[in-house]
Design goal:
This protein has 482 residues and is an alpha+beta fold. It contains 15 helices and 16 strands. The structure holds iron/sulfur cluster (SF4) (2 copies).
């Protein structure tokens, strides 16, 4: 696979450039089934992106009612009925692993469908090209405009186009910050100038990123910046469905005018280059599978239009597997093998990881304990010879009801327990923890001289919710002199 056409040929005694100059693609508008799927995907994905922050989900009094929210100040992430604490960030890792496996499985089955239809770079580039063709016209007009000299008209058209680009970019960046704030509030704050500086910073960053990536970088991001493009070939095999050119039918190619319908002794490709002109990455699929091909299918749509004009069978460029192309070339019946060892492995891994995630989410503890041992001093010797250690208990109440917590210590024989602020409650104090909060308690454990261990010994602190019976444990040490 190659993205560019390197050349080391000598031209009149001089070494030519190693790589060809950048040729900006001017994709022309096409009609067809893949174009329709692309519009449909674009509309659905943009609708999800722009409207999701406005979905509401009732979590009870005091809790945000935004269905999807990453609340950085409160350190919570909400996804409908799921609430994730910072301590549970590994669920995000699990989600990313699942997303990666889905991507691998989809690629092995259907080639780069993600790249061609659903990747945000593709979606926004498509949107920007649509805006560009509305303002500047289709391919020929855009080429003429770019090649023509600068004039007031050209300047006005370019200015208007980039103004529209910036509006789309601003809406994109604006929608992004809605996921990190209450959408219905921050949207007014942004325009009133009362939103936080972080909101304005990210609004600017995402506006600028969208403008640069979809307005300027476009296919360069797919060809040179995207790491996925580099290794997706490893997921493909001869049975994967990809955009292919039926060279056995198309070659030898040759120019033909509509009306000349005699294709005896030659291929069906009329060398019109409609497929190249439709390609958003500017490549010629007739040269074979290439790194720059994002499998968007627009060349297939363009070629089908041509085949219709010449009353030839459609599908000279088609979504097909390399294996099927070989069958078709030999006149044999094509076959689709979706279940293959590699796809079965991806599906099996996906099922296992998803099951682990669902089970883990469904059975996760909503009461947790973190213990931090005080370091200075590590221990204190009391006047009666006993040893005292200090700890901070962080009790995570991950539900929206208050808790009353008691605790016990295993590993040493505690003679006295004191909790800062609750000294009057004796050795079995009740530690209240507010709903959806972390209860922070400083605890001193004393061990009588005769029971004091030699050196550090492991201990376990177990907390117990008096009302629900839930428990949580944490391990630490009790330090004493050797
Ligand atoms: S070659 Fe065809 S499928 Fe590949 S990127 Fe270009 S138009 Fe899309
Ligand atoms: S659009 Fe079809 S006929 Fe025209 S050059 Fe491409 S493959 Fe050949």
């Amino acid at each position: 696979m190659s993205a560019t056409k390197p050349s080391t040929a000598k031209v009149k005694g001089k070494q030519s450039k190693l790589y060809s100059d950048y040729e900006k693609p001017y994709p022309r508008n096409v009609q067809g089934v893949y174009r329709k799927y692309k519009w449909l995907t674009l509309i659905v994905l943009l609708a999800i992106y722009y409207l999701s922050p406005f979905l509401r989900w009732d979590r009870g009094p005091g809790a945000p009612d935004q269905a999807i929210l990453i609340d950085m100040p409160a350190r919570r992430a909400y996804f409908f009925f799921i609430e994730i604490w910072p301590q549970e960030i590994y669920y995000l890792t699990g989600l990313l692993i699942i997303a990666a496996i889905v991507l691998f499985a989809a690629t092995s089955l259907f080639g780069r469908v993600w790249c061609g239809f659903a990747c945000f770079q593709t979606v926004w580039t498509d949107l920007f090209i649509w805006v560009e063709s509305l303002v500047e016209g289709d391919r020929t007009h855009r080429i003429q405009l770019d090649k023509g000299p600068w004039s007031g008209r050209k300047f006005g058209i370019k200015l208007f186009k980039h103004f529209l680009f910036l509006i789309v970019s601003f809406l994109t960046g604006g929608a992004w910050v809605l996921y990190f704030n209450d959408a219905t509030t921050v949207i007014f704050e942004i325009f009133e100038g009362t939103a936080g500086s972080g909101t304005y910073l990210f609004l600017f960053l995402f506006t600028a990123t969208t403008y640069i990536m979809a307005g300027w970088a476009r296919e360069q991001a797919c060809i040179y910046m995207c790491p996925y493009a580099r290794f997706q070939g490893a997921m493909l095999d001869d049975e994967s469905l990809i955009i292919t050119y039926e060279s056995w039918r198309g070659e030898p190619r040759g120019h033909t005018k509509p009306g000349q319908m005699n294709f005896e002794g030659r291929g069906h490709c009329v060398d019109c280059k409609a497929c190249v002109q439709a390609c958003p990455t500017g490549i010629d699929i007739r040269e074979g599978s290439q790194l720059a091909c994002i499998n968007c299918g627009l060349c297939a749509d363009a070629c089908n239009e041509v085949m219709d004009r010449f009353k030839l069978p459609r599908g000279l460029i088609a979504y097909d597997s390399i294996a099927n192309q070989k069958y078709r070339a030999k006149g044999e019946k094509p076959q689709v093998h979706l279940l293959r060892p590699r796809t079965l492995i991806y599906i099996a891994v996906l099922v296992i990881v998803s099951a682990i995630m669902v089970f883990s989410l469904g059975t996760r503890d909503r009461l947790k304990l973190n213990v931090i041992h005080e370091r200075a001093p590590l221990y204190s010797r009391m006047s009666d010879g006993g040893i005292r250690n200090g700890y901070t208990l962080k009790i995570l109440n991950m539900v929206r009801v208050p808790r009353e917590i008691t605790f016990i210590v295993d590993g040493v024989k505690v003679s006295k327990t004191s909790i800062i602020g609750r000294e009057n409650e004796g050795d079995n104090p009740i530690l209240p923890v507010k709903p959806d909060q972390v209860g922070d308690y400083r605890v001193f454990l004393s061990v009588a001289r005769e029971d004091a261990p030699k050196g550090s010994v492991p201990i376990t602190i177990t907390i117990h919710d008096r009302l629900t019976g839930e428990t949580a444990k944490a391990s630490d040490v009790f330090a004493a002199p050797e």
